[in-house]
Amino acid sequence: MNILSVTSSPHIANKRSTRGIMLDVVIALLPALGVSVYLFGYRSAVLSGVCVAACVAFEWLYEKLLHRPVTVGDLSAVVTGLLLAYNLPATLPVWMAVVGSFVSIVIVKQLFGGIGCNFVNPALVGRVVMAVSFASAMTDYAYPATAPDVLSSATPLNLIEQGGGEGLDALTLFLGNYGGVLGETSCAALLLGGVYLVLRGVIKPIIPVAYIGSTLLFSWMFGCAHPLYAILSGGLFLGAVFMATDYTTVPYTNAGKLVFALGLGLLTSVIRIFANSTEGVSYAILIMNLLVPYINDACRRRPFGAAAAAKGKKIALGTAAALLVGLLIFGAVYRIDKGPRISEPDAGSSATVDAGSGATGEAGATASATA
Q: Which residues contact 119 (CB under 8 A, 6 or more apart)?
């Protein structure tokens, strides 16, 4: 007697497992780890090891205490630990990294049901909580001894915000020879990992390409003086390749992924330029994670033979398209009208004249020019 098995969709047979996918992600992250050890020393390896060990330990302990199946073997906790470590400076005290690991695994991941049930990226929430709780330690960056003078005590985004981006060059930023958190500096290493994931079929290039490209476009439109340098710094490649492509927190369809990536580029540019914050990537991804259910609903494919989309859905999509076009027009007009957005120099750096010299007004200006 034949027994018919009735199961829910999707009915797709695939030999890939969660462990295999996570192992590919770990392999893709290794080049960035190697570069961080080269630039910042052994502390990079220590901090990464502590985050991975803490994430695995917290997941195992939580599941044991609640009598749930132990899932540490799927390597998802290892990936979370590495991603969290890549968002931390090499000088961070080890105990703070343990706190961030607890937030990422227990509060964000396990309390919502474990892998596949979290609605935001666990590592990013851990990073944001630490940035708020340990603000000073989280901005105490290490700087490579081989970094150029202009990058020996400041990050590229800080220089761009202060109007000092003229001393930067794209090759230095692409290779990552500057200060910052462990995994955000070397775009070359992150891009190498991204290519590996695409070739292995783990991710599609839609989100990374659209995210980076839209950030470049919106940064230019909103008056950033150096939009190319802006996309090569600040962790954009780390977020675009490894965090914005998390299966659980991104839309299902290709159209939804494109909308998701464009929203990321818009929010990242707005936060960086108008909020004067270097945390644009983290906040943009978390905000768009919260909007994923609505994007899925708006971009859901119509089943074959089903009725056309409801009128309300068409209105919502039309309104979103109109807003995007209007924003593009506004950005272009803003760019033409305002030009590049360059920070004013500090008052203390402006030329001053000794009061005892008696030089005033035009004479003082002439003296300064002559000097």
A: 112, 248, 249, 289, 290, 292
